[in-house]
């Protein structure tokens, strides 16, 4: 496994959480690791300066990190007794670090799957302003209740209009994706559940109603004792026999995520479809579901570059893969070698010659700057000199796809482990190739 170091700027609370200090540090990244995750894990390590405080206190642990559009969603497990000033400063230190080092626009902080909310009098460690009104921490525009941008946080506790996160199935019905939305009450109601079942935010997603033929039958909030509430939901399916175990887990996971992240008063879900408890269909005993093993279903979108119908331009195509595959350049290449699938635009065409497929990809290695793509000898001398255009499109489909990853800046193509000057055509491959945006068709989405 290759590893490389990177210098980064990380923020830490100091003086009992009343200010932040930036320190330059080196982090070690192994091939296939995601920069935001490496940053958060490094930030939570005990700090060696007695004047600084480890964000979220000693023993804090990263439970989950993902992305939604330009927002990073971070769940951290920290002590319930953590002082509110330290929590406030830690959240800002986390957001400043991630936004400055990753280019994200905002950060959402979770604990136990729910949005973090602060209460009480807390000083802003950047502006030294003090929020005296406890109710201000509970309103719709509390900075920790949504993504926030620390550099714009100097003059006011109000960051921007509230953004809500909703989860949906991707078009393949295999993964859970999230999107931002503003049409949400903030407390799970029957109206919210109807919206969740029937609406979608973009063409890459499907509503639960469209995907699985579901409609809402019953809805109620139930007391679980100790001040906790659960949500009971009963659905009707147009074809219950068509729903297998994976479908049931995906439906339940999506409903639970939307319930938990947007209404922290709810902690468990009981789901029935056509009068049958989902737990019984899945062979489970617990009446109330609390999100066990749900994160295995999260997907991430990657961008692949295929030929357009005329073979003159490359077009970007989004594809959903597992979270682990989204961190692997080799997995990206295998998706590219699969070619367009039934969920991709009709005009998308594969870039590889007939007979070249995943079996011909030996491996992909990265070192933090370059990616080396090693093919079998089947690819060599495939293109005659007069077919320079197709060779060029194939090569830059590889290069442009891999350089979508922030870790990869240049790409080398090898054959059977050795560097080659060309693949039979005129395109010189003896040096690393950089991204070529000039071959990408400009659309409203990628301009």
What's the gyration radius in Å?
Answer: 24 Å
Beta-strand segment tally: 21
Strand content: 25-35%
**In the residues, how many domains can be counted?**
3
- Tell me about the largest β-sheet: 5 strands, mixed
H/E topology pattern: EEHEEHEEEEEEHHEEHEEHEEHHEEHEEE
| Category from helices, strands and their pairing | alpha+beta
Number of helices: 9
Rounded mean pLDDT score: 79
Kindly report how far apart the N and C termini lie: 36 Å
Tell me about this structure.
- There is one protein chain.
- This protein has 447 residues and is of the alpha+beta class.
- The protein folds into three domains: 150 residues, no CATH class; 115 residues, no CATH class; 138 residues, no CATH class.
- Helix content is 21%, strand content 30%.
- The chain contains nine helices and 21 strands.
- Strands 17, 18, 19, 20 and 21 form a five-stranded mixed sheet that branches. It has a four-stranded mixed sheet with strand order 3-4-5-6, sandwiched between helices.
- Strand 7 and strand 8 form a beta hairpin.
- Helix 1 packs antiparallel against helix 2 and helix 8 packs antiparallel against helix 9.
- The longest helix is centred in the N-terminal third of the chain and has 19 residues.
- The radius of gyration is 24 Å and the shape is flat.
- It starts with a strand and ends in a 13-residue tail after the last strand.
- About 10% of the residues have low confidence.
């Amino acid at each position: 496994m290759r590893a490389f170091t990177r210098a980064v700027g990380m923020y830490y609370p100091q003086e009992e959480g009343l200010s932040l200090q930036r320190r330059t540090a080196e982090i070690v990244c192994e091939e296939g690791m995601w920069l935001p995750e490496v940053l958060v894990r490094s930030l939570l390590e005990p700090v060696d300066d007695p004047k600084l405080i480890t964000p979220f206190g000693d023993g804090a642990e990263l439970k989950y990190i993902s992305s939604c559009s330009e927002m990073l969603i971070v769940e951290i497990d920290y002590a319930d007794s953590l002082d509110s000033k330290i929590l406030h400063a830690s959240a800002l230190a986390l957001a400043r670090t991630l936004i400055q080092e990753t280019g994200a626009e905002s950060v959402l902080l979770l604990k136990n799957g729910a949005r973090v909310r602060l209460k009480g009098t807390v000083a802003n460690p950047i502006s030294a302003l003090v929020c005296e009104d406890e109710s201000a921490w509970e309103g719709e525009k509390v900075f920790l209740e949504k993504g926030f941008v620390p550099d714009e946080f100097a003059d006011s506790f109000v960051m921007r209009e509230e953004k809500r996160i909703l989860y949906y199935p991707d078009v393949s019905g295999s993964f859970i994706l999230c999107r931002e939305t503003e049409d949400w009450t903030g407390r799970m109601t029957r109206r919210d559940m109807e919206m969740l079942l029937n609406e979608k935010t973009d063409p890459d997603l499907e509503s639960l109603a469209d995907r699985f033929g579901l409609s809402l039958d019953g809805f109620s909030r139930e007391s679980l004792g100790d001040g906790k509430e659960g949500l009971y939901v009963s659905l009707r399916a147009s074809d219950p026999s068509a729903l297998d175990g994976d479908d049931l887990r995906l439906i339940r996971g999506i409903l639970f995520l939307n319930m938990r992240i947007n209404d922290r008063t709810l902690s468990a879900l009981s789901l029935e479809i056509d009068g049958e408890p989902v737990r019984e269909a899945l062979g489970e005993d617990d009446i109330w579901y609390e999100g066990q093993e749900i994160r295995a279903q999260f997907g991430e979108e990657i961008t692949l570059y295929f030929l357009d119908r005329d073979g003159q331009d490359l077009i970007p195509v989004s594809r959903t893969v597992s979270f682990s595959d989204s961190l692997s350049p080799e997995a990206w290449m295998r998706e590219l070698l699969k070619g367009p699938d039934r969920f991709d635009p009709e005009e998308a065409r594969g870039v590889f010659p007939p007979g070249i497929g995943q079996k011909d990809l030996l491996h992909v290695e990265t070192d933090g700057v370059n990616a080396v793509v090693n093919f079998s000898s089947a690819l060599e001398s495939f293109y005659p000199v007069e077919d320079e255009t197709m060779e060029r499109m194939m090569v830059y489909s590889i290069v442009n796809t891999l350089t979508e990853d922030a870790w990869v800046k240049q790409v080398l193509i090898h054959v059977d482990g050795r560097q080659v000057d060309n693949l039979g055509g005129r395109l010189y491959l003896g040096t690393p190739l950089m991204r070529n945006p000039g071959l990408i068709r400009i659309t409203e989405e990628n301009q």
